[in-house]
TrEMBL record:
Protein name: Uncharacterized protein
Similarity comment: family membership: Belongs to the cytochrome P450 family.
GO MF annotation list: heme binding; iron ion binding; monooxygenase activity; oxidoreductase activity, acting on paired donors, with incorporation or reduction of molecular oxygen
Cofactor: heme
Lineage: Eukaryota, Metazoa, Ecdysozoa, Arthropoda, Hexapoda
PROSITE patterns for the chain: CYTOCHROME_P450
Originating organism: Anopheles farauti
Length: 505
């Protein structure tokens, strides 16, 4: 009895001191509307009993009828949901709001650019930015054309009246092309099953990690490690890291061969001419990791590769798969994309200069990414109080920015916000909207480092595919339901049919 009384008194005192230490946070939180507060558990009841598919539908209904910004509580954690573009700009452009919340640690990539703490991220991002400079991106174009031509040739085997799932093929393609360009490793020699297993395993791994976020009882690491889910995660993580380890070994072999070649050339220094060139991501990472001041250990080195591989592989594969679906859904729009391609690059490789001329294709891609976003939401944690449009967001709050809501908001996109229309991205319409009304790759200093690479690689592949094939599907946009995850998932497979174009030049 005495022990019980002691524990009760200790808990009460601890709770009072805990509340007192967060007095300012509670004061500011009370100024933000939020109807879903319950003692201790906050708003967690909203997520209980709902799978990812149900959760998206439910939250979308709520957000369309709730104020913005809106407050909610995840246990002791204050969430502030912001979907007004002008406020989103204030948050994402603030140097005091580049930190990501603790939930990003669930993905086990806390040393890569995706989940690194703000101080580490700032240092490494600055060092790695040059690996996506215009000169580097331009050097990728011939390689991306080469891989796209190979992919189009492979699609010949799928031409029929039967539908097939395009996503596994595109996941393999994007994995190989990313490794070939940014990592300096040719994975095309790997077995098809190995490459597809990497992509499918990574999707399952990070989907489970995302689901842990809204299962608050699994947040404490010591509890999570007692569950079967942890054992499954560890097994999947081992499989996931095998690919980056393979790439590291390939790079070591290349370095050894280059060293041997240099030794042979030392006898004739007249033949050696230094020709400085822009370094790709892997070359830059290898270079900066040799400097101990940059604090990149072996695990951090591998996590940077893992981050780039999965971040580029799954997002690009999903965006391309979604775009092939929408091309099939809207044949009239597809024809306009095709006619533009035939005017800009009717045959042969797509040049770097051609890419900027594919304005209608870019509009079509953007409209697909607006209605079927790659990422449903992102989160940031301000390290100082953040003022935005008369609202003070307290330090330590978790700010949620729901792209899915912003990109379908009728106050931004008009009464037909749910209707697929690439002309939403005509220059005059874009000029009338806030620049943060459409941010598929995030925005501000902590945006996607490979954003421009993504646009280039997707345009080149789509040029080759649409120039060669007419795409069809039986799926309608209304049939698609989205599932909340690190990369948004569909309730449908990407089932398309291909018909060769007889007028290919």
């Amino acid at each position: 009895m005495i022990v019980l009384v002691f524990i009760t008194v200790f808990a009460i005192v601890y709770y009072i001191n805990f509340r007192r230490s967060r007095k300012r946070l509670y004061e500011l939180a009370d100024r933000i509307p939020g109807p879903f507060d319950y003692p201790l558990i906050g708003s967690i009841l909203l997520t209980i009993g709902k799978d990812p598919l149900e959760l998206v539908s439910y939250l979308m209904q709520l957000m369309h009828h709730l104020p913005s910004p809106m407050r909610a509580w995840l246990g002791p954690y204050l969430l502030v949901v912001v979907d007004r573009p002008e406020m989103v700009q204030d948050i994402l452009s603030s140097p005091d709001c580049v930190q990501k919340p603790f939930m990003y640690d669930f993905f086990r990539l806390s040393k890569g650019l995706f989940g690194a703490p703000a101080d580490m991220w700032k240092r490494h991002r600055k060092l790695l930015n040059t690996s996506f400079s215009p000169a580097v991106l331009k050097s990728f174009v011939p390689k991306l054309n080469f891989k796209a031509e190979q992919f189009v040739h492979e699609l010949n085997d799928y031409v029929s009246d039967e539908c097939f799932d395009a996503h596994p093929l595109l996941a393999r393609y994007t994995l190989v092309s990313i490794a070939y360009t940014t990592l300096g490793a040719d994975l095309s020699v790997e077995k098809r099953e190995v490459l597809e297993e990497y992509s499918s395993n990574a999707i399952r791994l990070f989907t489970a990690s995302f689901e842990r976020i809204y299962k608050a009882w699994l947040h404490p690491e010591f509890i999570y490690r007692l569950t079967p889910a942890y054992k499954v995660e560890q097994h999947r993580m081992q499989l996931f890291k095998q690919m980056s380890r393979k790439i590291i070994n390939i790079r070591h072999a290349i370095a050894s061969a280059n060293t041997a070649n240099d030794d042979r050339q030392d006898s004739d220094p007249e033949d050696k001419q230094e020709q400085p060139k822009a370094k790709i991501f892997m070359e830059r990472l290898e270079e900066i990791s040799r400097d101990p001041n940059n604090n990149i250990d072996e695990d951090g080195f591998q996590q940077h590769i893992d981050t780039l591989m999965f971040g580029g592989n799954d997002t690009s594969a999903q965006a391309l798969s979604n775009t092939l679906l929408t091309l099939g859904m809207y044949p009239d729009w597809q024809e306009k994309v095709y006619q533009e391609i035939m005017e800009v690059a009717p045959s042969g490789p797509i040049s770097y200069e051609d890419l900027s001329k594919l304005t209608y294709m870019e509009m079509f891609l953007k409209e697909t990414m607006r209605l079927i976003p790659i990422t449903g939401l992102i989160a940031r944690v301000p390290v100082k109080e953040l003022e935005t449009r008369g609202v003070t967001i307290p330090s330590g709050a978790i700010v949620l920015i729901p792209f899915l809501k912003i990109h379908r908001d009728k106050t931004i996109w008009g009464p037909d916000a749910e209707v697929f229309n690439p002309e939403n991205f005509l220059p005059d319409r874009c000029a009338q909207r806030h620049p943060y009304a459409f941010i598929p790759f995030s925005q501000g200093p902590r945006n996607c480092v490979g954003m421009k690479y993504g646009w280039i690689s997707m345009k080149i592949l789509l040029c080759h595919v649409v120039r060669q094939y007419r795409v069809a599907t039986d799926i309608k946009l209304a049939d698609i339901k989205l599932s909340l995850s690190l990369v948004m998932k569909l309730n449908k497979k990407h089932l398309i049919r291909l018909e060769p174009r007889i007028d290919v030049r």
